[in-house]
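A note from the maintainers: we've had questions about how concatenated examples are separated. There is no special marker in the raw files; a new sequence line simply starts the next protein. For clarity in this README we add a label.
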Amino acid sequence: MRFDFTGLGHSQGEFANTTFSSNVNDLKAASAMLAQRGMSPSLLIGHSLGGAAVLKLAPELEGIKAVVTLGAPYNPWHVTHNFGGALDEIAANGKASVNLGVRPVTIGQSFVEDVSAANLRDAITASKAALLVMHAPLDTLVGVENATNIFVAAQHPKSFVTLDDADHLITNPDDACYAASVIASWSTRYLKLARPAPPIGTPEGVVRVRAADPRGFLQDVYGGSNHHTLADGPLAYGGTNRGMSPYGFLSAALGACTSMTSRMYARAKDDH
């Protein structure tokens, strides 16, 4: 499950009406909703202030095995360093418009007061979940020293992976794909992930393909009842490159058939 906090990204509402505490409560509500559906979360991933939110909430939720932060501040009040002269306007008028990288957002006085009082150290230290800290050394909005502080405060097991020259919002698709692939690989060490079950009634000898991401080209490919793989398009053509392209599968089929046939003849020759 993926969501943006109120008034950010694709979420409706006004960010001016939120606080860091309300963001944590939204995350808690999302986790409760998943639990009610029999899908209690075991992995929390948060970017920027969302990373601070997952660090705050992780020790309060049962069943959390792993936590990942990307460009997260060690102290939530760190974000106020990017408000500049807007702090005076917020104090005077109760709110002000602040540019946080992509578009202006309205910050209210309650947000400033709440985020200034928040402290993550106790939560980070108390968490029993494995931690992966991802941060770009050249991040101009949240300095990499925040990653150092988070890493030092956390208990083992913990890992740090640099995002090299990525910007704070990880806007470069290559950087985003790299981060996603690292998270996917790292998390399998701590999560017991079962292969997705094939659709009911898929018989042997039948290949069934269905869309896995309506925004791109990613496809779930099921071969009979025991085999599952992903097909996708390359990045250059709007795909996410999470699986072989149809041309790749065709080449793989021809190559596998040729190799198997060669092996069959080699075995037959050895038998004689």
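[label: protein 2]
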Amino acid sequence: MSLSPRLIGRLSAVITVFIWTFFIIVTRASASHVLMPLDIVCARIVGASLLLLPWAWWLMRDARSKGEDVGSLMGLSPLPLRITVQAGVFGGLLYAVFAYIGFFYAPAGHASVLMPGSLPLWTTLLMWIFLREHIGMNRAIGLAMIVAGDMLVGGMSLLKAFEGGEVWIGDLLFMSAAFCWAAYSVTARRFGLDAVRATMAITAFSLVSFVPVYALLVSLNILTSHIAQASWFEILFQLVYQGVCSVVISGIAFTQMIRSFGPVKSTMITAVVPGLSALGAVVLLGEPMSWNLLAGLALVTSGILFGVRQATVKPD
């Protein structure tokens, strides 16, 4: 029995929200273990590549057997080179580097507000600039609430920078990661990318552009790596969770959600992620819930829900 497009979209939204919530908690917990942030980025890319790239080769086998010129990056990506690079830079490489380094500076509660929380802001601005998306009054108010919430969290960290704190670095990296994922979302919508092929393409680009450079810098002792000191369990866990769950399953589900609901509505569907992940960080990681984090979380979540209200009344 085939599933309806509406049901596929809803299932994709549920899967995305679930994995994004635990991605924040698990990755922050990983910062207290052995692996360095770029070690985890490497595990994410390699873990996803082991599954996706053989799958991509299999998808293109018929066209290749007929002598057709398909894909790019030596047959690793099923998409043309221009789209592969554009989607891969933002959705594959920069997002992962910014996000994982950020978790080594700032707590999961900050990531909860500043990553999924600021996605509607960046996505709406990019849609307005590049796709001429109309921004209604309700959405503008919702975005203003998101900005206020982000400033409550990130602004307080910037003030503490004068006292020698480094949390603000993680906050800026979280915001940068959210911008990169928003750019990937708009790219996926603009070119109408298939969920599976898009995820294969950004993984292929990340493998080709990051892993060789990372390996070279580690071998020359320019970059510090703790892979040799980590246990096999920790490495295997990161390969499976960060690679298979966070890239393959979540990437396909998120891109499918974009195809079903559009990038603005999709990022607004994730309204529950900031609250769930922040609560999870308090319960599972023992992080404190400060007044500015609580207020910022409330503003960001309310702003997203305000945008959802407009999207329901007036479709994009």
